[in-house]
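FORM 12-B: Structure-to-Sequence Request
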């Protein structure tokens, strides 16, 4: 864990830097000026040597999409390889903060520096805002030494980038790691073609929760729309309507076309174990790969990283079942630090 020689502060927008507009809060550029003003006003706050970049224009994170993930990935890699930074702080809106943290966890595999994402529930300009505590708390966490990888800092807590979820919309402790059961151990060696050097392309992905009354025609319409990968949020430990032959056949047809089907639990504390119930085994037989204890954010980000790298369905399915950065395992590989 090296000391910070140069910190890159990347600002993508979000509530932390928003200002009032005629229709409500809107993203505003130039957050670096506000950060410098805060450092002058509160000299007890400490920053290592730092540089600054911002997304142009900064966005409300509700508008985040895969293209932005790739832009952020490129900016982080450039900060390390071109600007000589050995730590990165990414300021991001909270609506999709956990999604971006998860996606970047897979897009930055092997980068070798710590990356911390944070944001705020109230703009930095508002009295009583959590913005500065989150920002400087994230900086302090980096200064104390973090293992390489993606982390999320919020409300005084440092969270794993591929395990965090937003649980609240009106509390400063809005993010947490859900205690979802995980199995297995970390992949000891990164697969060729899946580290941060790998360029990705946009992928047509979808997420669908199972619910009582879901019709096969609804599922088929989604699968027939060109979806390359589907995260299916199953009941409990990975069950679904096993007596609906038409729905199961829609899944089989999609799998035969090469669509990757990933099953996760829709329970906040759940995990997938298809062999527990016959209703789960029916989904596995129809072509679903078990996502163990992955969150929705991690499942979506991992699917994007794998399919966006151009992997064929069979290879993507293999790596979906392996733990790449701690997203679905509690243990690290031999000799590795656990983030």
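FORM 12-B RESPONSE
SEQUENCE OUT:
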């Amino acid at each position: 864990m090296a000391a910070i020689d140069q910190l890159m502060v990347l600002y993508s927008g979000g509530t932390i830097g928003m200002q009032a507009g005629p229709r409500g809060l809107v993203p505003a550029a130039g957050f670096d000026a506000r950060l410098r003003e805060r450092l002058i006003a509160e000299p007890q706050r400490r920053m290592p040597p730092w540089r600054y970049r911002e997304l142009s224009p900064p966005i409300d994170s509700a508008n985040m999409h895969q293209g932005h993930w790739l832009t952020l990935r490129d900016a982080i890699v450039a900060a390390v390889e071109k600007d000589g930074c050995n730590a990165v702080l990414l300021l991001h809106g909270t609506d999709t903060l956990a999604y971006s943290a998860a996606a970047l966890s897979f897009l930055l595999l092997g980068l070798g520096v710590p990356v911390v994402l944070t944001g705020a529930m109230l703009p930095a300009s508002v009295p009583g805002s959590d913005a500065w505590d989150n920002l400087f708390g994230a900086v302090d966490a980096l200064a104390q030494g973090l293992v390489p990888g993606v982390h999320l800092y919020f409300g005084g807590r440092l969270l794993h980038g591929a395990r965090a979820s937003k649980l609240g919309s009106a509390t400063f402790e809005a993010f947490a790691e859900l205690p979802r059961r995980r199995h297995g151990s970390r992949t000891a060696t990164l697969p060729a073609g899946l580290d941060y050097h790998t360029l990705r392309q946009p992928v047509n992905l979808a997420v669908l929760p199972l619910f009582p009354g879901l019709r096969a025609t609804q599922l088929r319409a989604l699968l027939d729309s060109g979806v390359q990968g589907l995260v299916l949020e199953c009941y409990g430990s990975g069950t679904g309507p096993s007596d609906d032959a038409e729905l199961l056949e829609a899944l089989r047809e999609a799998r035969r076309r090469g669509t990757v089907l990933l099953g996760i639990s829709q329970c906040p504390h759940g995990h997938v174990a298809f062999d527990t119930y016959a209703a789960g085994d029916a989904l596995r037989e129809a072509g679903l790969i078990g996502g163990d204890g992955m969150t929705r954010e991690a499942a979506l980000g991992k699917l994007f990283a794998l399919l966006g790298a151009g992997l064929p369905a069979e290879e993507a399915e293999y790596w979906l079942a392996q733990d790449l950065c701690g997203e679905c395992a509690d243990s690290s590989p031999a000799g590795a630090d656990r983030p």
